[in-house]
Structure formats: C-alpha cells, structure tokens
Amino acid sequence: MKPRWRRAKTYSDILYHKADGVAKVTINRPEKRNAFRPETVAQMIEAFSDARDDPSIGVVLLTGAGPHTDGKYAFCSGGDQSVRGPAGYLGGDGVPRLNVLDLQKLIRSMPKVVIALVAGYAIGGGHVLHVVCDLTIAADNAVFGQVGPRMGSFDGGFGASYLARLVGPKKAREIWYLCRKYDARQALEMGLVNAVVPVAGLEAEGLQWAGEILGQSPLAIRCLKSAFNADVDGQAGLQELAGNATLLYYMSEEAKEFHRAQREKRKPDARKFPWLP
Questions:
Q1: Minimal CA–CA distance to 259: which of 243, 270, 271?
Q2: Which one in 95, 165, 191, 243 has a CA-CA gap of 20 to 30 Å to 132?
Q3: CA distances for 80 relative to 27, 61, 197, 277, angstroms
Q4: What is the pTM for the complete model shown?
Q5: What is the CA radius of gyration of the chain?
C-alpha cells in the first residue's frame, strides 16, 4: 500500500513530505545530479530539524529526485562545484560555507532513525551523507565513491573516520586514495550498505524497514542510537578540526589547481606540488 505523502513545506531545492510516522527528504536538483549548494543544505537542515521535533515522526528517508533527462539517477553527487569558491561554497548571499558539516551532525545526533535510499550516484559529499545515515538501502544501479583528491577536496571528519569503522581502515584508504567507483554489489560485500534492491522497489523497501522500526520502542531506539554514536564520539571533534582544515586547504594554490582542472575537464598538474616530508 502506497503512503499518502503530504507536502510538509515547499522548498526550492528539496522536497519534504510526511506520512504515517515517516518523513521523506528528497534532494530535488536532478539536473545537477542532486549536488548540493548552501541553500540546499540549509533547507535540508530545516526539514531534518522539523522531523526531529515532530513527535509523530520516527524515521526519516533521505533520497534524491530523478532520473535526470538523460535517464541517469543520482542520490547526491556532493557539493555543486559551479558555486565552489576559494573558501567554501557560495550561496546567494556571497558568503562561503561548508554547512553540510552541520547537516552531517544533525543526521547523526537526532533521536530518529535516518535511512538513505540510494539510487544512482552517491559520490563525494553525497557519499558522506549516506555514510552518516543510520542505514543505507541501495538500488541495483547505485554507484559509490570518493573524488576529493582528484578535484582539490577531502573529508577528514566522518567521511574518513566513520567510513573506516564501516568498511575497515584498509578499504577506507583505498576508497579515498584511489578514487575508484563501486557498484551496489561491491558496496554490500564491504558492509557499506545494508541491502540492495531493484531501483523500482527502493522506496517500498525503505518504507518496509521504516514500518518495522516504528513498531519498536521509541526510547529504546533513541538510546541505542546514542550508544552507537558514543562509541565513536571523538569523531565529532575530528569533524570540527577537519572542517577547519578543509577551509584552509580550499584557500591553497594546490586545491585551486585541482578544482580548476575539474571545471576545465583536464588533468590537474599534480606533479608541480611536492610531497613534503
């Protein structure tokens, strides 16, 4: 039975719906492979905050709109490189921000279960978003990977430390150092996702999982989420430090060269930067 989704609020960059104890946040920029800009993240923070404060909501589904007109799906392809400036991502107010870090913390800390429904690309910052969710259900067309070192960026917070907890330190280093892409089956084998289903059944599977969770004790689930996070709580401090390091890195000539190369669709001149001792 399909849920009777009702629009909770209207936004420019996301869709926000609720039905039967479940909230659904959909990144709605398919023409950009659902890449986020500061406004996208601010709207997501507002929607997740609303879901956190709504006592009728126990589970939040996070997904991406699609497919694009070319037929390709994307959960989220990370930060929108067309608005990346020398100190972060520029919103309409011209202020550079890395506010996706605040969204990551909110997803981790809110006392509700957050399930990522990944169809198509979960790349870069989009990959980190699914990593920080409590659970991930992947469509059989899902593609996972990191691209930061190729384009003058990195995530030294949850995107590195918590990823290593999920897949192991060696695999996490492979994902970051080599910037390869992994299909849904490979992601399942490495423990990066919980299940793989046909793309047509992705939302239905997410709702099935949500329904099972909603049948459990809300307080028990709340305490369990806190317990899982407490074991790795130092990573929140790492994320804060890594955010500051990212800001400084973006301002360097090295990061600017890799970013320019990505925008100009050429190979970066990596050899001109030394591997300092």
A1: 270
A2: 95
A3: 13, 22, 28, 33
A4: 0.88
A5: 18
